[in-house]
Amino acid sequence: MSERLETLKKARDRMIEDRDAHAKVLAAAFERDTAERARNKFVEMQALIDALYRAIKSEGTISGAN
After folding, report:
1. How far is it, in rounded angstroms, from Cα 15 to Cα 1?
2. d(CA 14, CA 12)
3. Based on C-alpha coordinates, what's the Rg of the chain?
4. Stretch (H or E) spanning 2
5. Up-side HSE of residue 20: CA atoms within 13 Å toward CB?
6. How confident is the model at residue 60 (pLDDT cuts 50, 70, 90)?
7. Which of 13, 25, 44, 53 allows an S-S link to 38, with CB 3.0 to 4.6 Å?
8. Long-range contacts of 42-47 (CB under 8 A, 24+ apart)
């Protein structure tokens, strides 16, 4: 596995951990301000995870072509 692909996977795993922390806040007792911040961060993190997933898929395709 290339170093770039490994780095992307590590970044994705780290962002999943961060996203999970925000999900826990959303699942807890409702506090408007806290929930709103957690929701916004969750959506932001999910967009980043999706982008990392696409990069990993692309890198795998590129690496497989070589």
Report:
1. 20
2. 5
3. 15
4. none
5. 6
6. confident
7. 25
8. 45/15, 45/18, 45/19, 46/19
Residue 32 structure tokens: 């408007």
User: What is the tens place of the pLDDT at every residue in 1-55?
Assistant: 689 999 999 999 999 999 999 999 999 999 999 999 999 999 999 999 999 999 9
Give SS3 for 31.
coil
Q: Does residue 61 carry a pLDDT above 90? A: no
Residue 54 carries which side chain, given as an amino acid letter?
R
Split at pLDDT 50, 70, 90, the class of 65 is low
Residues shown for the chain: 66
Q: Quick check: 7 and 61 in contact, CB under 8 A?
A: no
The one-letter amino acid at 56: I
